[in-house]
Amino acid sequence: MQEIFAQIFLSMKNFDQKKGSFKAWISKIAVYQCIGLLKNKNKFSFIAPATSNEYPEEPTSMSWLDELSQDEIENILLDMPLGYKAVFLLSVIDEYSHKEIGEMLGITPETSRSQLSRAIKWIKSNLVTEKNQIAYGIF
Q: C-alpha distances in angstroms, 31 versus 26, 55, 57, 80, 112?
């Protein structure tokens, strides 16, 4: 948190109100600082997408997330591999495009799509119990 605030204060002269809101600018700095910290600790691992030209489909509906509380989502994501989690959070929660995610994480947009697809499969296969499927109408 301290690194994020330091970066904000050091970069204050670079803020341009014409390019976007102050909140969005701060958010972007926070995301990049967090990603940088994780990269420096070598905790990211990405699985390359399949070599074929077919990449996993984008999820058509993530509406089941609206049914979960913030605590439930955090608990679901607790054990998720960091590569999956980073792409999932940036795509689904922060609504960045795969191109933007690729630029942030140093991966291709195709790898980002693949990681998102695998993250969703991971959630389905590892963390969603039959009780939750019935309670939330998931999947």
A: 9, 26, 26, 18, 16
Q: Are 80 and 123 in contact (CB under 8 A)?
A: yes
CATH number for 67: 1.10.10.10
d(CA 20, CA 27): 11
For residues 64 and 139, the answer to whether their CB atoms sit within 8 Å is yes
> Residue 80 corresponds to which amino acid?
M
Give the predicted TM-score (pTM) of the model: 0.59
Per 3-state DSSP, the chain is made up of helix, strand and coil in percentages (nearest 5) of: 65, 0, 35
Q: Are residues 56 and 110 in the same domain?
A: yes
- In the chain, the amino acid numbered 124 is K
DSSP string, 93-136: IS---HHHHHHHHTS-HHHHHHHHHHHHHHIIIII--HHHHHHH
- Enclosing domain of residue 27: 1-43
pLDDT tens for 82-121 read 888 889 989 988 889 999 999 888 889 999 999 999 998 8
Task: Report the number of distinct structural domains present in the chain.
Answer: 2
